[in-house]
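thoughts on both lines:
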Amino acid sequence: MDHVESLITSLERVIVGKRPTLELLAASLLAGGHVLLQDVPGVGKTMLGRALARSIGGTFRRIQATPDLLPADITGGMIYDAPRGEFRFVAGPIFAHVVLADELNRATPRTQAAFLEAMDEGHVTIEGTAHPLPQPFFLIATLNPLEHHGTYPLPEGQLDRFLVATSLGYPSQAEEAEVVTRQQRGHPVDTLHPVVDPAGILRWQAAVREVFVDRSLIEYAVEIVAATRTHPDVVLGASPRASLGLVRLAQARAYLQDRSFVLPDDIKALAAPVLAHRLHLRAAGRGMGREDAGSVIEQVLRTVVVPVISR
């Protein structure tokens, strides 16, 4: 759709040559999910978050994860207001429309867990009181797949809460030259203006839920997810949350392509980014395991029968 296309075009003014990743990011936002970027430093992850926030007229906060980061440093907490003689809540940096949690695996498990309620329910609870986050709320978390010293691997339960895992990767030499050229006199992100407002994003998210999904495609998505649980190379397969996410993201992809219905190709194209990071493989010592998990998903896609949709 033209209005959603304007969002992607806005992001392309900052992130050069990464159209498929930007489309996946936009689809994840419209599906109401969160994104895990497994990338090396310096490829534009923070700028991507800033560009998205500016493009949707929303707020942006960056949280640098470190071993000494505490849950209250993320969520905020109660402080004593001496003039009023009472405690009041002070919001932490998670209270923004777009939040970038950089190198999330450098935070301790306790601090990593501070993100879970926000990701699942759109609020944080402090001393028994729920504080709603701005809507839409979109979390981009980053991991450096080559750095393991001083890190705490994300548990399966946390990985499962990210709708997709993807990466920007290095640009080509021509794209890198274009990046340098664009930043000669300033950064393009500073020239961005909103192409939609947060209320508009919420309307798009509601429209995504209205995209038609044939029952046979729901069963197709579920069969793909179920097949990951019985694959001989997989110790822990994808959860029912993955089935929900795969179908919802397929609806968002169809909406981005100006269709009112989901196709089998939507499910197939999105299976790897939705499922790969959720699989726990038998073989140990293979880094992040994304390439191996991708191979498992390719095998699954070859074995599950694709339904024939007549429209």
